[in-house]
Amino acid sequence: RMAKSLKDHIIDTLEELDDKGLKKFRTKLCDRPGEPKIRKGQIQDADALDLANRLVSTFRVDGAVRVTVEVLRDICENHLATTLSDKTKSLVGDISPSGSATGGGTCQEPAAPSSAPAIPINMDEVNFVEKHRNDFIQRVTQVEPLLDELLVRGILNTEMYNSILAAPTHQEKMRRLFQGPILSAGARGKRILYQILLEQQPFLIADLMGQ
């Protein structure tokens, strides 16, 4: 399995923002002082992938990470900024909060009770995972790539990852996943599990949707 690139980490981070968050990010990005600048017309309706491409083409890849972290902090998405900084630290160095070129506006929004970013939950996806739990246990045979992605997204820690991976069969691996981390992560965990399976095993999801 190939290691994620810096650009992949930027895309993953921006995909955690909802529509309102992306709009705030685009606005703050265009308001950054100094050159090079990104113009509003270049990213008016840009999604996470478009934004990542524009950031990398404008600031080069390591600069794009730094600018992304800086802008996330300026729109009070401190959890996402810290997560991106931590995941890319070995490649671009530490990105300290004091390094914000926009003066780092004070975040007045109340902190979320959990350390997880606030993500709108699509209950259709959550219900789908609950409904087809046994199907996933029996039919998901490529468990390791799924665990890799859940580890990256913070649903698993290393201890959980190793414990699940040690199970003798793919059914037992999936059973441990559902009984432990997915249960603990609640609706957010089920939503992320659905999205990863949709990406990695689209034919299985399509088949289950057709039932």
Describe the protein in words.
This protein is mostly helical and about 210 residues long. It folds into two domains: about 5-90, Orthogonal Bundle (Death Domain, Fas); about 125-210, Death Domain, Fas (Orthogonal Bundle). It has ten helices and no strands. The chain has helices at about 5-15, 20-30, 50-75, 80-90, 125-130, 135-140, 145-150, 160-165, 170-200, 200-210. The protein is elongated. It is found in: Inflammasome. One of its GO terms (biological process) is activation of innate immune response. Keywords: Cytoplasm, Immunity, Inflammasome, Inflammatory response, Innate immunity. GO terms for molecular function: cysteine-type endopeptidase activator activity; pattern recognition receptor activity.
Topology of this protein?
Blueprint: H1 6-15, H2 19-30, H3 48-74, H4 78-92, H5 123-131, H6 133-139, H7 143-152, H8 158-165, H9 170-200, H10 202-209
Helix pairs in contact: 1-3, 1-4, 2-3, 3-4, 5-9, 6-9, 7-8, 7-9, 8-9, 9-10
Give a short overview.
With 211 residues, the protein is mainly alpha-helical.
Low-pLDDT regions: 98-105, 109-120
In CATH, the architecture of the largest domain is: Orthogonal Bundle
Distance between the termini: 32 Å
Mean pLDDT: 83
Helix content: 55-70%
Radius of gyration: 19 Å
Output the structural class.
mainly alpha
Strand content: under 5%
| The CATH class of the largest domain | Mainly Alpha
Number of domains: 2
Determine the CATH superfamily of the largest domain: Death Domain, Fas
The CATH topology of the largest domain comes to Death Domain, Fas
Q: How many H/I helical runs?
A: 10
Organism: Lepisosteus oculatus (Spotted gar)
Domain CARD: 121-211
Subcellular location: Inflammasome
Region (Disordered): 95-116
